[in-house]
Amino acid sequence: MKSLPGIGEYLDIRHIVIHQLKKEAGSRHVQLRAAPRVLEIGARERIFLGNLDTSYHKKSNPVYGIFAAENPAFRDHLSAYVQGHTTFYDFSLQVATHYKSILEHTVTASGGFMILCAYGNTITRQDLMLVLMINNKEGFVVNE
After folding, report:
1. pLDDT band at 14 (very low <50, low <70, confident <90, very high)
2. How many CA atoms lie within 13 A of 26 on its CB side?
3. Residue 141 resides in a domain
4. Does the pLDDT at position 141 exceed 70?
5. Structure confidence at residue 142 (pLDDT)
């Protein structure tokens, strides 16, 4: 009998990094706190990405980005990374810096944590790039 894969076992995680963009809504000041390096990939990262991937694909109408010609910065940075002209870490810094400039012009926006992850799905054989912003909202964690 064939066993079902565990959470994230079907993902080939190549790189993951988390940068922080600090900004209060109503202000134009944005501070980029870059991660010192990409993260080591272990069980925690695999489960985190596996849960995100499953959640995203369960949605009846998943949200995704289309990068238009009027602002090709992300597309150009991604293309340079995919073609091997830049490292994943440098690509992530370029994306975070680009998003910082967008936040500086959006007074109502707040900052957060930017997670970038290059990975592949071994079942669908797709190469994917996750770019996720998690807001700086106050929250609580309850442990039993």
Report:
1. very high
2. 0
3. no
4. no
5. 60
Determine the pLDDT at residue 34. 97
Three-state DSSP at 47 gives: helix
| Residue 15 belongs to domain spanning | 11-57+65-135
**Phi, psi (deg, nearest 5) at residue 50:** -60, -40
Tell whether 96 is covered by a domain.
yes
What are the strands of the beta sheet with 11-22, ordered from one edge?
A: 31-33, 11-22, 112-121, 126-135
SS3 130: strand
Report in angstroms the alpha-carbon separations of 98 from 14, 17, 125: 23, 16, 29
Domain count, the chain: 1
Please give the Cα distance from 46 to 12 (Å, whole number). 9
Place of tokens 């109502």: 108
Task: Give the containing element (helix H, strand E) for 11.
Answer: strand 11-22
Whether the per-residue pLDDT at 68 is higher than 90: the answer is: no
Burial of 29 by CB count in 10 Å (0-12 exposed, 13-18 middle, 19+ buried)?
A: exposed
**Secondary element (H or E) of residue 128:** strand 126-135
Q: Is the residue at 3 inside a domain?
A: no
Q: Is the residue at 75 inside a domain?
A: yes
Among 43, 23, 39, which Cα is nearest to 31's? 23
